[in-house]
Amino acid sequence: MIDILKKDIISCIESYYKCDLSDIDLQFSYTKQEFEGDITLIIFPLLKISKKSLKETGEDLSHNIFSKIDTIKSCNLVHGFLNFVLDQKFWLQNLDKIICTYNYGFLKRKEPKLYLVEFSSPNTNKPLHLGHIRNNILGDSISRIIEANGHEVRKVQIINDRGIHICKSMVAWEKFGNKQIPSDKNMKGDHFVGHFYIMFEKQYQKEQEDLINSGCSEKEAKLEAPIMLEAKDMLLKWEQNDKHTVDLWNKMNKWVYEGFEETYKKLNICFDKNYYESETYKYGKKIVLDGLNSGVFQKEEDHSISVSLEDVGLDKKTLLRSDGTSLYITQDLGTAVLRNQDYNFFGMIYVVGNEQDYHFKVLFHILNKLNYKWSDQCHHLSYGMVDLPSGKMKSREGKVVDADDLLDDIVSRAKSTSLELGKLDDMSDDKKNDLYSLIGKGALRYHLLKIDPKKNIMFSPEDSIDFNGNTGPFIQYTFARIRSLVLKSGISNFKFKTDLNITEQEVRLIKIILKYPEVIQDSFKLLSPSLIANFIYDLVKEYNNYYQNNQILSLDDEHQVCFKVSLSDMVSRVIESGMNLLGIFVPQKM
Fold it and tell me: Residue 390 has what pLDDT?
């Protein structure tokens, strides 16, 4: 909305003062609610041009601009801030203009840039859980928002398929699995493997307790527990490419991947490319050795390789252990460089929890030291944890909200709530089930995305599925209500007279709609889908208030009916567009 007037106002100022304002950063904002006006210009930067006081400069501009721009109804000066009141013609003309705009709010760029978005990136020793769901829907939504800002996106993940964690599941399966496969237990592959990871931990705890009771210290018990020694031995065999170990590793990982794909399908998540730690860590080791040879890294007395980051206020970081084995930072270096070779991206966004904040600071600084210029365009979308009323989730103890169970539960809740409302009697069972899925999954996505990513979330399934308040179902229901209204009106050509008298509430609705492009841009700048979620909620609240307090189809004036239906239709288009950026579908009927 600001951009619509900004050019005309600047042109008037340049004409009045006979100057060029290209070097002056003029600041516009929306007028605060306590003052009269729609858009505000801060006039302090113009004093060096006007050579007058704030009051005199403001009065000069007020008279000049008011007389030149016919959509400005009036101006008022408040302590160096010039507030513009826009007339009804402005709102009607701009609503008429955007009604004809395809993909309203989306940017088009002559030279779009390519961004990579990394998200999900699970371990292959357990199924996805609630924390992964927040990660996945954040990554998916950010990808959609980047595209809406006119850029290209590739969605990638790094699958953590090597290390002691998968060896723990492998050892437990060999000891306790009796050669069973997932279908024998009627389990998804990721659940099956995760079951053995938990079994390992239980056995490990028991063996530690036995060792401590026999006189070992707690530290010794952790190191000497027989099952842990077996896992370490298996990891060593894997690194030595032992055939039996590698075959078992491939078999169990395949089970997990098949399970992941089922969950991704439920979440409507897909990736353009998967990277695997079992491959990228090797390239990471090469990068570290090259960095050592070029003098960027140094070898320690114990033969480990490290990098000093004291010049940027960080600690020294080990990149390869003394025995030559790699760390997480090793594979992350390899993965980042391989991705740039594959895509030659402009920027890369890592969607990873805030417990890894320090890790990514270190990673980006190391890439910079290695002279990878694109490292300046690497960003960590650091998000908060999802907690439960019972406390923090713990995978090792099996105290997690499983992603599949949660998705099934949320759809079941959507079904129960929808049946209570009793408005779906004329739908077939198949269409009802599709609707329950849309409502349930939309409720989950919205509940997790409406909160600023940086904040922790206390997850409540009951609150997410509510059909009232700041929830996905409330927004979906409003959309369906508007589509029903538009369909009932029989109007398909949304053109209206632009010299109508409209109400203040209609002006407020148009104001909100005109802010949508800026919200899309801000959500990209801040990497925050919550801006879009809460913008849509504000729009829905305003529209519901309007709908309840105004006649629409029953009016005698056909021009007013056409305008009100056109406005309603535009509200629904913005709702559908914004919800789509959150990865949420809106049904035509509820």
Answer: 62
- Tokens matching residue 261: 């794909």
Give percent of the chain above pLDDT 70: 97
What pLDDT sits at residue 417? 84
Residue 509 pLDDT > 60: yes
Cα separation, 557 vs 565, whole angstroms: 12
- Length of the chain equals 590
Long-range contacts, stretch 177-181, CB < 8 angstroms, 24+ apart? 181/255
Distance between CA 93 and CA 497 in Å, rounded? 9
Spatial CB neighbours of 157, under 8 Å, sequence gap ≥ 6? 118, 119, 120, 121, 122, 271, 274, 275
Q: Which amino acid is at 429?
A: D
Q: How far apart are CA 34 and CA 47, in angstroms?
A: 26
Q: Is 396 a residue whose pLDDT tops 50?
A: no
Q: Above 90 in pLDDT, residue 220?
A: yes
Question: In this structure, are strands 305-307 and 298-299 parallel, antiparallel, or unpaired?
Answer: antiparallel
Express as a percent the part of the chain with pLDDT over 90.
79
| CA 64/CA 468 separation, integer angstroms | 48
Are 193 and 256 in contact by the 8 Å Cβ rule? The answer is yes
The predicted structure's pLDDT at residue 568: 97
Q: What is the pLDDT of residues 55-92, one digit of tens each?
A: 999 999 988 888 888 889 999 999 889 999 999 999 99
Predicted pLDDT of residue 31: 92
Q: Are 85 and 75 in contact (CB under 8 A)?
A: yes
Q: What pLDDT sits at residue 569?
A: 96
Burial of residue 311, with CB atoms counted within 10 A of its CB: 0-12 exposed, 13-18 middle, 19 or more buried:
exposed
Q: What is the 8-class DSSP label of residue 321?
A: -
| C-alpha triplet 509, 513, 518: angle, nearest 5° | 140
Q: What is the mean pLDDT of residues 527-548?
A: 97
DSSP letter string, 204-269: HHHHHHHHHHTT--HHHHHHH-HHHHHHHHHHHHHHTT-HHHHHHHHHHHHHHHHHHHHHHHHHT-
Half-sphere exposure at residue 30, Cβ-oriented, CA atoms within 13 angstroms: 8
Q: Which domains does the chain have, with CATH numbers?
A: 2-86 (3.30.1360.70), 162-271 (no CATH), 403-581 (1.10.730.10)
Closest CA to 402 of 139, 142, 122, 159: 122
**For residue 399, what pLDDT is reported?**
59
What does the DSSP assignment read for 105-132? Answer: T----SSPPEEEEE----BTTS--BHHH
Q: Give the β-pairing of 317-320 and 305-307.
A: antiparallel
